Amino acid sequence: MNTTPSASLQPRRRLALQGMALLLALSPVLAPLAQTRDGIDVGGNSAFSQLVPADAVERSSGQQYAQMLQEAAAKHALGGKDHPQVIRLRAIARRIIPFTIDWNPRAKDWRWEVNLIGSKQINAFCMPGGKIAFYSGILDQLKLSDDEVAMVMGHEIAHALREHARARMGKNAATGIGASLLSQVFGLGQLGQTVTNYGAQLLTLQFSRSDESEADLVGMELAARAGYNPRAGITLWQKMAATSKGAPPQWLSTHPSGNARIAEIEANLPKVMPLYERAKKG
Predict the structure, then answer these.
(1) Is residue 28 part of a domain?
(2) Which sequence positions are flagged as catalytic?
(3) For 126, phi and psi rounded to 5 degrees?
(4) pLDDT for 22-33, tens place per residue?
(5) Domain that residue 253 falls in
């Protein structure tokens, strides 16, 4: 009896392997080609993001963000529109947001929100769809300048633009669901269920170190184009290091070390300083 290795594989395993092979073959097609441009070049978004519908992720994000704001308001911890720090954060965001479309065309249709939550946490984030939140702790404890706030905000916005959460959800789906998902790459199939399964992770999702490094660079460019000094990234991480006293705060738990970030920022300053100088003249 002639049995080749492929013939002996069980159907589900064979489908999983075929799906993986298809994903690898499609990666160059699914990831947008990097365009020649001034500033930072980090290539296209991850092909894994294509495994999860963007609108479903953004819808889930909006629901979680609204719930978070409701809970903060119930605790009298939500900054009002007349709060000085809310006014400040929203003014910085208004300068940065116009430059987001170059990184992700979907951003032009996002309903951007910027809010402040009263908490001692040194934390900030931007969820898919442009839902931004700063905790008062990061502003109060680090005494951030506007340039430093712009670096933090640019970094968090970059996560949303580069669809890091969506890509990690796609990767989780590819490895966790396997054949039943991968065999339906070109139809929604169980993708909606994937968003349900992984959507709850959006507020607690841990990004990879490569995601964090990429967000640093993209965020630095966004801030520079908006007229904020990208050198503030150096002082920002110096403050972070001083505050952490050897133990990184929650916001830095999976990030590269402060020294590594500063070195990378310094290495890329020549790419973004001309953008900053141009913005200041304009």
Answers:
(1) no
(2) 156
(3) -130, 115
(4) 455 445 444 443
(5) 47-281
